[in-house]
Design goal:
By secondary structure, the protein is of the alpha/beta class. It contains 23 helices and 20 strands. 38% of the residues are buried. The structure holds adenosine monophosphate. The site of adenosine monophosphate has 16 residues, from helix 3.
Length: 610
């Protein structure tokens, strides 16, 4: 393995790479850098995203660039504005110690005037999206007559996105003598046609695997309890208004519930799991790829076929049963040279799994606090202001309306105007988070309450749970129906998926057991039985005592519709019990039942098996 100096790069470039933490070249860099430095032949490189290809084409250009000239010498085309910005920023990092190199990045949706001004100052390297590049050529703001290098990055994506015409126009504007460097992850017919028509006997190189050394994903965890899990999820989404994420769930049922709740609460979300038909899945995936939806809630299996490179976040609503799957989940972000964040929501009991995952990923999870309402509002406000700053004003379109608008607003001064526009956009958000609680406090209170045992109460296990449509009100009704005694005190109620717990005044322990035993009640067609849990909430001993006790369905937080914690469970209705049970198992691929592990451990599973 060579060093960057051995590949022919000069010391100022090497120094910048050292600053960036690039210790040695990647495969594609090792092949492309000396080739481009030593030869003017065209180059066709098979390189997937994340292989270090940006440096592979830009470092040799920086090496050879004539900094005494301010002509555009290199034009780099990339399919998306995000990638163009990324490439532009990377190149600026690479020329940290080359003060005479100037780089301009041009793309749509941003001020054309600023870009023209920057070009006029004289940039030797221009990075652009095809559309904006052509616009600037037409306006004669971008002159490509002296170009020595034309880079087509992610050529297949550019053609996929329908930029064939623009590519042709840019190619026509460059001189015959230039060197064309084409980078593509795939070589379909259209890309081959570009290579054939516009390149002369190109040298071909291929890259290795994705650069494992790139530290593109950071791993964070948030401490939650069952009642703060969903509100925490929403706050994370609210803190990141431009979020583009997959939320991973263990089961179809969990997936559907989370998606339904997010949709109900006004998020741009949809679900992807095995209960959907192929046509439904295709439609959801299509919408997500086009970014018509920002958040996809999915099971591991269903998300397998989805290839999206620009995710900002991967959220683990619950950790996968097989912890190895965490790597597959988190690896879906931080691709294509982007950075990404993989977030895990864990309750006290799940925290142990984090240590095991850290061993596999060889990275530490960073504990992160659930954002407060104030932090979210502040972040969203700044985001809005940034967008206002960057908004391009189309004067010709709005000029005819402006006089009457100016007239109507003439009595407001600048401050009042700003306040009104911001309030227009923000009053709902402000009202929503007004007096919002700190979820971190709630989580720790839940946890400490979970450890407290009320000595005056007996804790019972009951063999029905949420999947049987049990809720606290129905459980209280069921207890009252047994005529145990007048005004008996019912304490904490924990409704879990397939079973539950409730507390009753210790003095009524025997009567409660007798009443359930002699009445033999049923609930929704299911025969009910109860048992006294011996070592309540202390861990060890009986099976019931092993469950997480942070959960309390009776509280007001998760129940007020439209409030921050709203999380209805409407998706259950109308389904038979067997459906619900299978939807609640980790989703497996259609044919894999024999080799696949069932949900590990857990009380619910043991009960089903016995
Ligand atoms: P790219 O394929 O150019 O988008 O690069 C993918 C990621 O790898 C980016 O985060 C780069 O900063 C990083 N990278 C590129 N080359 C190297 C290198 N030689 N050593 C370490 N990281 C690199």
């Amino acid at each position: 393995m060579s060093t960057f100096l051995e590949l022919g790069l000069k010391e100022p470039i090497n120094k910048a790479l050292t600053d960036l933490g690039y210790e040695k070249p990647t495969v594609i860099q090792e092949k492309a850098i000396p080739q481009i430095i030593s030869s003017t032949d065209d180059l066709k490189a098979f390189a997937q995203t994340g292989t270090g290809k940006t440096a592979a084409f830009s470092l040799p250009i920086l090496q050879l660039l004539d900094t005494n000239s301010s002509n555009v010498q290199a034009i780099i085309l990339s399919p998306t504005r995000e990638l163009a910005v990324q490439i532009g920023n990377n190149i600026k990092d690479f020329c940290k110690y080359l003060p005479d190199v100037r780089v301009t990045t041009v793309y749509g949706g941003s001020s054309m005037e600023d870009q023209i001004r920057s070009l006029k100052r004289g940039s030797q390297i221009v990075v652009g999206t095809p559309g904006r590049t052509v616009d600037l050529i037409k306006r004669r703001a971008l002159k490509l007559g002296n170009v020595q290098w034309l880079v087509l990055d992610e050529a297949d994506e550019m053609l996929n996105m329908g930029f064939k015409e623009e590519l042709d126009k840019v190619l026509e504007a460059t001189p015959e003598t230039k060197q064309t460097l084409l980078f593509s992850a795939t070589f379909p017919r259209e890309v081959e046609a570009i290579a054939r028509n516009y390149m002369t006997k190109p040298v071909e190189i291929t890259s290795g695997q994705k650069n494992q050394g790139a530290d593109s994903v950071s791993h964070e965890y948030y401490s939650v309890t069952e009642r703060t899990r969903y509100p925490a999820l929403k706050r994370i989404a609210d803190l990141n208004p431009d979020i583009y994420a997959i939320i991973f769930c263990r089961t179809r049922r969990e997936t559907q519930e989370v998606a339904d709740n997010l949709i109900k609460d006004g998020y741009s979300a949809d679900s992807l799991h095995g209960d959907l038909s192929q046509a439904q899945r295709d439609s959801v995936m299509g919408k997500f790829r086009k970014k018509s939806i920002q958040i996809l809630v999915a099971t591991d299996v269903a998300a397998r076929g989805l290839d999206v490179t620009e995710l900002t976040h991967v959220l683990n609503h619950k950790l996968p049963d097989q912890i190895e799957n965490y790597t597959h989940r988190s690896g879906r972000t931080g691709r294509a040279g982007n950075t990404g964040i993989s977030i895990v929501l864990v309750n006290g009991k799940e925290k142990g799994k984090l240590r095991q995952i850290e061993k596999i990923i060889q990275k530490k999870f960073v504990e992160t606090k659930v954002p407060t309402g104030k932090e979210i509002v502040q972040n969203q406000l700044m985001n809005l202001i940034d967008k206002v700053q960057k908004t391009e004003v189309n004067e010709s379109e709005i000029s005819e309306f402006l006089p009457s608008i100016y007239e109507k607003l003439k009595d407001l001064d600048r401050e009042e105007l700003i306040q009104k526009f911001v309030s227009l956009e923000f009053n709902t958000m402000l009202a929503y988070y007004e007096n919002s609680k700190d979820l971190n406090d709630l989580s720790s209170k839940d946890n400490s309450r979970a450890r407290t045992v009320n000595e005056n109460m007996t804790r019972f296990f009951i063999n029905i749970g949420r999947k049987d449509n049990l809720n606290p009100a129905k459980l209280i009704g069921l207890i009252n129906d047994q005529n145990i005694g007048d005004k008996i005190e019912i304490g904490a109620i924990d409704i879990l998926d397939t079973f539950s717990f409730f507390e009753i005044d210790k003095d009524f322990e025997d009567k409660t057991l007798e009443a359930f035993s002699s009445n033999q009640p049923d609930f929704d067609g299911r025969s009910v039985n109860i048992e006294v849990t011996k070592k309540e909430r202390s861990g060890g001993g009986r099976r019931g005592a092993k469950k997480p006790f942070g959960k309390k369905d009776g509280g007001g937080f998760g129940r007020r519709r439209g409030s921050e914690g709203s999380s209805s469970r409407s998706s259950d209705s109308g389904r038979g019990r067997s459906d619900k049970r299978s939807s609640d198992r980790p989703e497996r691929s259609e044919r894999g039942s024999s080799g696949e592990k069932r949900p590990s451990g857990g009380f619910g599973r043991k009960r089903r098996d016995s």
